Amino acid sequence: MFMYGNIKLFLCKIMLGTTFAALSTFLFLSLLTQTSADSGFGIVNSGPKITNWGGIYGAYISSIFTVFLGYSAYLIPAFLLINGLRMLLGIKNSNVLLKFFILLLGVMLLCLVLTLNEINGGLIGDFLLRLIGVYFIQYLDFKIIFWIVSFFLTVLSFVLIYFSFGLKIHNILYKTLFFLKILIKEIK
Predict the structure, then answer these.
(1) Which candidate, 79, 83, 103, 78, places its Cα nearest to that of 93?
(2) Which residues lie closer than 8 Å to 113 by C-beta, 6 or more apart?
(3) Cβ contacts of residue 116 below 8 Å, gap of 6+?
(4) What is the DSSP letter of 40?
């Protein structure tokens, strides 16, 4: 479990892990305490009182995340926290940058799905919907095709997000099926 390597790697992983964990905490608290009264992206507020726990920086960062990603913005701090804790605890954590880009792809697909279903998917979801709408709008008018596309994109985005978090899908499925099996036995 505690695999740090030499002293340089130990210090580098501790500092990077602490930075990731602190940044994720800051982002998560900023997103949670964001209100419409705070200044932000495209919002100029003349009031001196900012209620965001991250202060003026937290208000602007949370506003940018919310405007661009919508409800999917909470996945970025979760990713940073998981990888920061892995680094702090010395758990093997490889290809973090690749996993981050996979997370961004999964979040973009999730934004598209949310916007397709008229939920806040942010500017990215709106942009992607308009981009595919130019070519595929006549097909999305049919409800069955719409639901098949929504289901496929949702599953694909969840698989990408699970992979980026480093979760083993087969372990999750096995545990879920195990609990369902116990639940079914209890009902009988």
Answers:
(1) 83
(2) 121, 125, 150, 153, 154, 157
(3) 125, 129, 140, 146, 149, 150, 153
(4) B
Report the C-alpha gap between 65 and 53 in whole angstroms. Answer: 16
Given this model, what pLDDT does residue 127 score? 94
**Cα–Cα nearest to 22, from 79, 103, 84:** 84
Strand partners, 43: 40
Q: Summarize the confidence of residues 42-54 as an average pLDDT.
A: 74
Rounded Cα–Cα distance for residues 181 and 93 (Å): 33
Q: How confident is the model at residue 144 (pLDDT cuts 50, 70, 90)?
A: confident
% pLDDT > 90, the chain: 41
Of the candidates 149, 170, 31, 71, the one whose C-alpha atom is nearest the C-alpha of residue 141 is 149
Per residue in 70-116, pLDDT (tens digit) is 989 999 999 999 999 988 888 888 889 999 999 999 999 999 999 98
Over its C-alpha atoms, the chain yields an Rg (Å, rounded) of 20
Token digits for 66?
């919310």
Separation CA 120–CA 23 (nearest Å):
24
Give residues with Cβ within 8 angstroms of 186, minimum separation 6: none
- Cα distance between residue 167 and residue 103, in whole Å: 12
Residue 185, helix vs strand vs coil: helix
- Partners of 40 in beta bridges: 43
